[in-house]
Design a protein that fits this description.
Layout: H1 3-23, H2 29-36, H3 43-54, E1 60-64, E2 72-75, H4 76-81, E3 87-88, H5 101-117
Antiparallel strand pairs: 1-2, 1-3
Helix pairs in contact: 1-5, 2-3
Length: 118
């Protein structure tokens, strides 16, 4: 394999892995509310954020467009009318065993190697 093709492949692989890493972010609704209200995510702050949200929750819902780390509040009618545009969060925490630490570590190692090569 020539060096030019090697770098093209490395760049493609690096871009692909960054894309995969970005879409593998799982954030719960409670975590999202903490992000929105700029609170550190823990049990106490989750309760506080949920209490703040209760005041507007009859008409609004928290969701996201393309990046799950950027929450937006939207009218429920708008959310349900544009279900392909807005995406809802999980109501509960995703179990940690869904993504093993070993997989995340391997992905970080691969990304580190590729970033030093490119």
């Amino acid at each position: 394999m020539t060096s030019s093709k090697y770098f093209q492949f490395a760049y493609f692989l690096h871009s692909f892995l960054l894309f995969i890493k970005k879409i593998m972010v799982f954030i719960s609704r409670n975590h999202t509310l903490c992000i929105y209200y700029q609170l550190k995510f823990n049990e106490e702050n989750s309760i506080q954020a949920l209490e703040k949200f209760q005041a507007i929750s009859d008409e609004h819902e928290v969701c996201y467009l393309t990046d799950s780390t950027i929450p937006v509040f939207v009218l429920k009618a708008r959310l349900y009318g544009s279900s392909f545009l807005f995406k809802e969060y999980f109501n509960e925490e995703v179990p940690k065993e869904n993504v093993s630490n070993e997989s995340v570590t391997k992905l970080d190692i691969i990304l580190g190697v590729l970033s030093t090569l490119y």
